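Archive entry. Fields below.
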Amino acid sequence: MSYLAKPKFHHPALEANSLGFTHRDYEGSISTLCAGCGHDSISAAIIHACYELAIPPHRVAKLSGIGCSSKTPTYFLGQSHGFNTVHGRMPSVLTGANLANRELIYLGVSGDGDSASIGFGQFAHAIRRGVNMVYIVENNGVYGLTKGQFSATADKGSKSKKGVVNSDSPIDMVAIAIQLGATYVARSFSGDKAQLVPLIKAAFEHQGAAFIDCISPCVAFNNHEGSTKSFDHVRAHNAALNELDFMTARAPITADYEPGRSEIIKLHDGTSIRLRKLDARHDVTDRGAALAAIHEHQGKGEIVTGLLYVEEDPQDMHMGLGTIDKPLNQLGEADLCPGSAVLERINAALR
Amino acid sequence: MPISGVNDFVIRFANVNGSGSASANQLFARSIIRMGVPVSPRNIFPSNIQGLPTWYEVRVNGEGHLGARGGTDMLVAMNPQTWKQDVAGIEPGGYLFYDSSRPVPKSEFRDDITVIGMPLTEICNARYKEPRLRQLFKNIIYVGALAALLDIDLKEAEGLIAAQFKGKEKLVTPNVEALRAGFEYAKAHFQCPLGIRVARSDAVGDAVFIEGNDAAALGAVYGGASVCAWYPITPSTSLAESFMAYCKRLRTDKATGKNNYAIVQAEDELASIGMVIGAAWNGARAFTTTSGPGISLMQEFLGLAYFSEIPAVIFNVQRGGPSTGIPTRTQQSDLLACAFASHGDTKHVMLIPEDPHEAFEFGALSFDLADRLQTPVFVMLDLDIGANHRLCKPFRWDETRRLDRGKVLDFAALESGRQFGRYLDVDGDGIAYRTYPGTHPTRGAYFNRGTTKDSFAKYSEEGPDYIENMERLMRKFDTAKTLVPAAVIENSPRKTPLGVIFYGSTSPAMHEAAGQLADDGVHLNLMRVRGFPFGREIADFIDAHERVFIVEQNRDAQLRTLILVELGADPARLSPILHYDGNPITARFIRAAIGAAVRSPARGGKVKVTS
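PREDICTED_STRUCTURE:
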């Protein structure tokens, strides 16, 4: 429910990006989520990332499924077309939208119920098709809109607010995404904006299936003791592998790092990410190492965060399909309709 | 008495699937067409790839009746598994052609039929060493023998073989030789021709011979579809595959070799309709192709597309029933499932083609209607039209025709400062203007969602906003009535109080039955429904008759229900004539059923006739 438009006035000294847009131009309506909801922090991070990247807001198509997380696209990028689809089916709608116009930027926002339960299949298939998108799961381990049922990412042994202990194994979205062939996989925490914003920026620049699992505590139903998705628990068990600096050609990062502690990842469009390695052993271009790191930390009860895996030269769906560079939705009659002479030849061959 | 007749018989081939019989049988049918004599072949096949019985029935009819006739005048028995039922199904006085390589006890035959035994296996074993060649050429050899027995011009079959293997000339000679071997053997050993035979005619004209699925796919190409997302399901699969083949040929960008289209085989029907909706929201013409069970899976998305007003084209090649049972048989039993698909108050546009010609026409038209009406449009084929070759009028395309992309505001329109309300009825026809994502930096963006919105796409749960939207959708549906193809009415030369309503693949059988019934003294005015929502002419037709038969291929009289619900017609005047055993409806059935109903005073009730 968001019928409140945000007032448009802002401080005259608010800084504008290279497009002349201020931070405010990337906002949406006022959030109607619970005060303190982790999802609002993720919306803020998305706004921040888009502002810093100077993305024209109207060139983003934002899509979501159903649930608290899926309501959030209303709260950012008010000048973007948005599509609130049906529960668990955002990935197919996003895939279709991308088929129609490969030039837009696709942002899919989903939740753990939306993507790990009802929409697990669609999540998997959009990832394995290599749809060029940023897919963010706002993961709180719980169904918020229906008041506190476990989702499929809830850890085994974690306790619901009503005291029920979850006996099912959790689905680890990042491990699944890596196995399915996602070419950019990260995990972050809605309470760590410094880590999350550059991860989102790099995901936007990545020309392939970019997946971010963002732990986002539910203040209403999953922030109590015994929960493994609460602010306190995540802060206490966060094992960050690295920190990112996203670099564009215009804004090189000049900070010096300890030798062996930094790594440059070149992206397709010439931009690059500089990683400050917190765990010197982790090689983000090694799929197997990423899976091993996830399992190792999980075994210790830790939540591994940061950029887990990236493929420097990703394939996207259109490459596999061999589609023309021009968006299909811009093709006209001459491109689409073969005309009457061709039809006469077809008729002749059918006699 | 042996059956005799020129250009008027039904021949049935009993084969084992996977044996290569399909192309030989089609060669047989096409050879007759090349002689100017209309035929209508039908595949009767199980849900299986190899080893199970499959039948191919060819009706030869010089008058151009293309509906299934029922009964078999000649059987080509190539499958011992089904021998008993196949032989029992031959009409008295009919003909049995079989492989006599192994002796068959006399008790396995009938006294009232003509038996023609040809040692096909022996001949093949003598001619070919390789087992696969023995099997493939056996089929060609029997086609040659049938040409002799039925007086089919061998030159036509040879011409077809030459055309089929153009570019692979090596294959032409052995095929032609096998054909001639069969022909010569029959000439030498049997009395040729039989009582039933083919005589050259000019009844085919410029007709084309094509499957409805193939024609619908071509219609989608001409209609400008650029995105296809689909999931394999019998009998719709060949539609997507045809679209692929046509696109490869007609839509490859000459300069770059890249594709002016995208086809995705989705993980299920939910994903395929989801992709169609995403692509259509984003301004591409998109479709999916499926059958009944797929429609069931798409229900939730269809509701979203209806309420958020997204053009989507769904080809539904109808079949009988759910997962197992008669999925490879034909029915018209998804009418209600499509008309009212999904949750909430929904109604959908349907187009119902009678043959491949209309499958092409409606295939192309569906995209204009979907864009114009901003709503899902169903093209309702069925297995009988979709998966069988049918002679039909050639396809035509008017060069001046333009794709109707409907009400879309582009950059210039938005820049001009024109008011934009995504769900605002500016023109009074219930159709609002839409924008594609990414059009303008500051204008035209909106949030697409279900029903919780006002005319400007702002979130609203207010009752009046909901009602306003729902009433506009009804106005839009009224507009649709003026856009879907009108029903086709053919009045009897005699004044009559009796009318018949029918649709889709029932058409050829109905026309044939109407002629027979006229001979019986039962005169009928005919109306073929071609779309939903119903135009005015349908209510007028019902009003103009005392009694109207509604002939359908389903159990529940679905079109009748739709007419009762939508038009408030008097149920007592609408008599259902229902055929739903999975086989295509026949003129024989309709003639008997309507004949019995006319003689019976009871009205509105069901008439039971077995086919």
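CURATOR_NOTE: The two ends of chain A are 60 Å apart (CA to CA).
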